[in-house]
Amino acid sequence: MNLTLRIWRQTGPDEKGRMVKYHVTDVSPDMSFLEMLDVLNERLTLDGEEPVAFDHDCREGICGMCGLVINGVAHGPEKATTTCQLHMRQFKDGDTIDVEPWRARAFPVVRDLVVDRSAFDRVIQAGGYITAPTGSAPDAHAMPVPKGDADAAFEAATCIGCGACVAACPNGSAMLFTAAKVTHLGLLPQGQPERYDRVLDMVAAHDEAGFGGCTNTGECTAVCPKGIPLEAIGQLNRDFLKASRRARVA
Fold this sequence. Notes:
single chain; alpha+beta; Ubiquitin-like (UB roll); Fumarate Reductase Iron-sulfur Protein, Chain B, domain 2; 5-stranded mixed beta sheet; two-stranded antiparallel sheet; 7 strands
């Protein structure tokens, strides 16, 4: 396959960026998208040019580092797939592909396709923990959890914090990410002591980080590589309303 890539190049957070055109030849359909970028970078290095900076780590669809907007879609055209697991057979010979970073006020560009996602860390620090005694693990059956709650908590826990929800949201909201973390812990017995403080603190951290508000457009769920449902945001909203009432009464 021979492809034309238009890639966002930006030398630093305070510099002006632009789309730069590159031609890549002899691309195997079995390559992943990141492997194709590796081939481009090898050529750029041999030619004495600056390689394209992009985030990656595990390349197994687990860590969430590989955040790219490909032809206007976070993680690319394949559903429930991270960029590193997107293969070039999803494209056609001769295609022109636009590659951009996550674009959100809370995710400033560091260089080229790399953005600063530390805002997610601050949201987690605000309440993504539980109070639990240390020591040996309890027996698996010692604390029963209703099947529905267990399934919903497990579904929310699959969030890998990639930020695709933010990149896809027209408001730059991270509410799906925040909801996944709140729902995961709030549905389990171990998460009850901090349940209502957690939702207030994490939503406050979300807003302070500069993320936009949620207007339920659903774009976040359409690009989420783990399929976190919109119902998670509904669960967060219910907990937030209860927590707000409790705070007013207190």
